[in-house]
Amino acid sequence: MPEIVFCTMDDEEKLYQAVAGVHVIIHLESAQWWGSEVDLERIELVGTRYLIEAARVARVGRIIMLSHLGATPSSSFVLLRIKGLLEEIVKGSGLAYTILRSGVLFGEEDAFINHLSMVMTLNPLFVLMPGRGEVVLHPIYVDDLLQAMLATLTNLNTVDRVLEIGGAEYISLHDLYRTIMRVSRRYRLILSVPPYTMRFITRLLSIFSRRSLITAQWFDILASNRTAHLGNLYHYFGLRPRRLEDTLLLYLPRKHNLIRAIGYMFRAKPKGSL
Length: 274
What we know:
Layout: H1 12-19, E1 24-27, H2 37-57, E2 62-68, H3 78-91, E3 96-102, E4 105-106, H4 113-122, E5 126-130, E6 136-137, E7 140-141, H5 142-152, E8 161-165, E9 171-172, H6 173-184, E10 189-193, H7 195-206, H8 216-221, H9 232-237, H10 244-248, H11 258-265
Parallel strand pairs: 1-2, 2-3, 3-8, 4-7, 5-10
Antiparallel strand pairs: 6-9
Helix pairs in contact: 1-2, 2-3, 4-6, 4-11
């Protein structure tokens, strides 16, 4: 039976215990959906440095890390800059690495499409959309991402490489709104709002709730097109990704009633456990 160790990213002693006897680390820890810039730096950067230090002592052979399409240390957007800096830390760690830059994840418990559906649940009349919805996204189903990560374990061609992957199709933000409405049968008027206004509204709403359904990092992802080549998932791993709308139909219509959405907003934030 595998040993399960629960700890935060700044608990050095527990980190050593967690990686002892481990050959490969799959690094998924992130504060992107709920953290401030300080939280991002603490968990993503400082926490990863602690993890790598423990991995070196334990002689871990390799680290596989999840990043974002568009990540770069020179980005003017906090999330993408932090992810870019994190990639540089992993590359300079002395460990063999694989970095997967993925499009936006979707699944039964995702924090993007699910949250947008929750917002539509809370307001029966309209939903706000940053800009005109022309930004193009490349969503990928969480199970497809998991299969890609597992494939990197045995594919030597992925060692010491940064791979960009996405799902079966591109979709504009406006079309994504329409798709969620069509699948969930929650039809709302879409109001186009300047992104800076949306950021202000989000900061204002965060004062009144423990968690915000839409965060500043949400807008960082939507700042510009986030796509990879459509065939990359098949090219790298021989995987055929699932289509967005077909997959959403399996679970989204039965989710996100009003009580669930309100309950999420007032639930305590996670503390960055491993």
